[in-house]
Amino acid sequence: MDLLEQLVNLEGVSGNEHSVRNFILKESKKYSKSVSVDKMGNIVVRKKGVRPRIILLAHMDEVGLMVRSIDKKGKVFISEVGGVEPSILLAQRVYIKTKDKVKIRGVITNDQILNDEEIGEDPLSMMELYVSTGLTKKELTAAGVKIGNYITFTEDCSFRTLGNRNIISGKALDDRIGCYILLELIRKLITKNEIVFVFTVQEEVGLYGAKASVFNLEPDYAIAVDVTAHNDFDGTMVIGKGPSLTIKDAGMLGNKCLNEALESVAAKLKISLQLEVSDIGTTDAASVFAAKGGIPSAVLGVSVANLHSTIGISHRRDVEEVIKILNEFLKKPPTKCWA
Q1: Engineered SS bond to 64: which of 13, 20, 60, 289, CB 3.0-4.6 Å?
Q2: Inter-residue contact 326 to 300 (CB < 8 Å)
Q3: Which residues are catalytic?
């Protein structure tokens, strides 16, 4: 999974996806002559063929942080970009990237931790966290640090396998795993149908890339390839127990016809699927299914533990099985899949 490792280690906080985009453009052009970037920054890769026209979506962006303000002592206060739990940020190494690509390294802290005081019982607030760089405000300004600079997690959060070599970890598994799956399909898929692969921007802050992309594509139906949260409290969604298929999330209901077709393919391949019914979170599919008069949509992916933290955890086999399911499904997709 060298390609996945490279994807995970790239910087790509929402609105700052250019490094990921450049990498995917280079890889896509090895296998397709129809590769473009729309005004929003989404990548569109077309494999031409007959209808139905199917779009597969995966988002390039990851959650992260941004400089909110700098006080007179040089404390660099932070704002979240996408959903990040404040409690997991304490003592994390980060760097602030300036316009001139200078990286100012620092550590996230708050006044209690910095001064070895006890943390109160109230939940941590993002408003109290800041990056300590050891520089004064004047020195930070001279180095190019200003409000709006992106703050990125360091190499400590890069791609790694764990004690079990099939367990993968790293930042941005959400949704570089989906990007990896799409790139593998671009490389190996053989089908007579038209497939459009869309690598979207700004999913983590409002599904904006998907909203913009769908208007130019006129798909017959869509599949978002994304991740879902590991849940071993009741065992309904566990890494290593198979790909995830979304029945319902906070933003949409998966198209029944598409879901049944994907389940049928998985059964044929003897792959176990985990079915997701959730009240929180959603994917690019929520932006697509009600657009253009209605586009039947589904969500297929893998579960990730430590979701929206600095280091996620997933299983290699789940990723490989999603590729197998989609590769088989797209060889002979349903002609029509209305609700």
Answers
A1: 13
A2: yes
A3: 203
